[in-house]
Amino acid sequence: MSLNRQTSGARITRRGLVRGGLALASLGVISPILAACGGQPAAPEPAKPAVESKPAQSAPAPAATAAPQKASVELEYWMYETREAAVKSQDKWFKSAEEASGLKVNLVTISSSEIRPKVMASFAAKTHPDFMELRGELPTAWGAQGITVPMDDVLDTIGRSVWDASSVRYVTWKGKAYGAPWFSWPHVIWYRKDWYQEKGLKVPKTWEELWANAKALHDPPKRYGFASYHKAGDPKVIVSMMGINDAYVFDEKGNAAIGRAETANALKMVKQMSESSVPAFLELNEDMARLEFLKDRAAHMSTSVSMAYVIHSDSPARASQFAGFSFPIVKGDRGGYYSAASFSIMNPRNRDRTGTFIKTLLQPKLFVEYMKTTVVGWIPIIKTVYEDDNFWNAPIVKPFVEPMKAGVEASKNGVWTAQHFGPNPMAGPFVAEDILSKMVGRVIQEGQTAEAAAAWAQKETERIMKDNLDLKM
Question: Which of 50, 86, 357, 418 is the most core-located residue (most Cβ within 10 A)?
């Protein structure tokens, strides 16, 4: 297989938006600490020419069955993951799919910070790739703009029942699916398993039990109950607290609904968590809080299951000290912060061939082998993989079975920022104004009541909607 790998991009954050489309959120982060957690692309650069493809090596079809007809064209796939484990496992995965399908695919690596400008430039020049790995809202964001191609037939052929409701919900816009989800990075509660054992504590099933455990392990300044983080632009903790309280920014019809009592309850939980958190949590982002947690400064942290990659890479001998559980739900049936990666078809010219190749990639045998060796902490969101013991017995997965199985459960009901019921174009300007972080600051820093902060957020959300009437659902 011929690979064309370019310089990987700089770290990206969750700030920014696609104006006139959906929120550009939850692109994967290549930073070792965030390790595939969500983020957003940096501000768009001036348009650059699309990357050039290089010819790939063809592979023979399996001899056991009638050989698939080889395509007269080579498909092009753009990726932006550069970590060694991901690159090696993906090369092998794509090679196996080439052999099984009789199709040829050229893999091209682009910088994560250049995804938007390169895609936009290539789309305008009609030189865009056949398919891409897109993270977060990008499949539907670009579907709304006619950049990604509907692929309901691909999902139907694979069988939609292999995905849980959240996976399909977040790749669907106006009744059409614009991606085939394959892995996620949901948030769970990581905890110090060794400290639990020392104190004789049990894994909590309710928030009351969690508060009690945090209190039992809270021993400042040596260590704290939580490593919380609420720096401007990083609202994932409050997103999770809102999800498990059945609080949401917009209701199912797209109306502003953040002022409800459920949001106030979520804010009260955030405040309670902060009372036993490491200091300066208002100045910490997820990266920084992870460092505090890994330096033995806190007993719990709300963060992505991809924390497993950090532990595996930096201190694998410590894996047994850590574990995780899914968020106890207070009200409703939704969980914490969640995002996922999907294969999206970009070029209608080779649509059928591309769909065939994606379906081949997601065949259980091939997909399981890939997930066994790729970045540990990525959660397969196809049932045939996460129900397969071969996956859980993989050497890199075994030390993290507990938090990763919690991640499987968290993926089934997770929520996206400001998009509780599915993709919503109004989430873009809402996220851009960082209303959630400001709302938390009003409670913790300014001393406002949770109810007053939620009421403020309601008025701000209504203002944003009035300023962006063209985005109303």
Answer: 357
